[in-house]
Amino acid sequence: MGAYILRRLLLIIPTLFGIMVINFSLTQFVPGGPIEQIIAQLEGSGDVFEGIAGGADAGAGGGGEEEGYLGARGLPPDFIEELEKEFGFDKPPLQRFLIMMGDYLRFDFGDSYFRSISVKDLIIEKMPVSITLGLWSTLIAYLVSIPLGIRKAVKDGSAFDTWTSGMIIVAYAIPGFLFAVLLLVLFAGGSYFQWFPLRGLTSDNWDDLSVLGKVGDYFWHITLPVVASTISSFATLTLLTKNSFLDEIKKQYVITARAKGLPERRVLYGHVFRNAMLIVIAGFPSLFVGVFFGASIIIETIFSLDGLGRLGFEAAVARDYPVIFGTLFVFGLIGLVVGILSDLMYVFVDPRIDFESRET
């Protein structure tokens, strides 16, 4: 098992390098880079854009800046050259990429172009919000889907199985952003009830609350975002649990256990559960990362939560390349490590599995 883990860890390096190469290359063809956006704001308002000086150390990231900027006609060429030098665009793309990857190997992601903060500190600051959404959504999905899937397997073909399948399929079909807006309209001060806050994870008087008050305030704020990000997770996990149980229930060892007179509950949870839950439990890391990455952008934007999803969206709009590539590097690394953790979860749940014998 140790050799398998070592091989997987070594594969992280070329895989992550390939991800960064592809995305860096694509940005070379994207118009409207950070310098063009600064020039547009300078010519549009006549004010000096905040953060130009702070971007001097950001350096390495970057996309395709055209030689003749569309909005640069009223600005002196020396000023444009100074901007290029400060942001590192005076160097060839290959050199910028190699400098960036050299810094990233030391986990030095530079500074944001338009914020007076390093990318590393920015990620650390925003990560708790996204982890909160991903963790609670995943836990709730498992707590609901596993018992429901087992019940559906036991009652396969019954009226309960039919109408619950209809409900979870409808829930899966509803777009996440539409369901989030619906929750806001219904329960957050829209046209009906004002039971939950409209935005944020804490109230303005958070520091004045007691410990229990802070706990209650936290769950009060997190309810709607978590429900909105969880709703589409039930279908896949519930049906996966049901099908896994149905496959195991039909096997010979279950028939033998029942023939011996064992109670149905012991047959299900003492014999079937371990084998049926293998793929479900082992998929926990992947499901968490899927919710963490996938739902966070829409949910955080709609509910005005200051997390990594919203940070990535704002960075893409502003062409804040150090933030874009820094978060991409971190997310890619997390995703690859989680893939290894998923395999380890398989072995933990069922030690009979031996990845060492597989060809990679």
Provide a concise account of the structure shown.
This protein is mostly helical and 360 residues long. It is built from 15 helices and no strands.
Can you describe this structure?
This protein is globular. The chain folds into 2 domains: 23-119, no CATH class; 120-318, MetI-like (MetI-like fold, Orthogonal Bundle). The protein is built from 15 helices and no strands. The protein has helices at 2-27, 34-45, 77-87, 93-105, 119-154, 159-173, 176-187, 211-230, 233-249, 252-259, 264-276, 278-282, 284-302, 308-318, 321-349.
Number of extended strands: 0
Q: Tell me the span between the first and last alpha carbons.
A: 13 Å
Main beta-sheet annotation: none
Question: How many domain regions?
Answer: 2
Report the β-strand fraction as a percent range.
under 5%
CATH class of the largest domain: Mainly Alpha
- Percent range for helical residues? 55-70%
Q: Compute the average pLDDT.
A: 77
- By secondary-structure content and strand pairing, the structural class works out as mainly alpha
Radius of gyration: 25 Å
Second rung of CATH, namely the architecture of the largest domain: Orthogonal Bundle
CATH topology of the largest domain: MetI-like fold
Fill in the keyword field for this structure.
mainly alpha, MetI-like fold, 2 domains, 69% helix, 0% strand, globular, Microcin C ABC transporter permease YejB, transmembrane helix, transmembrane, MetI-like_sf, membrane
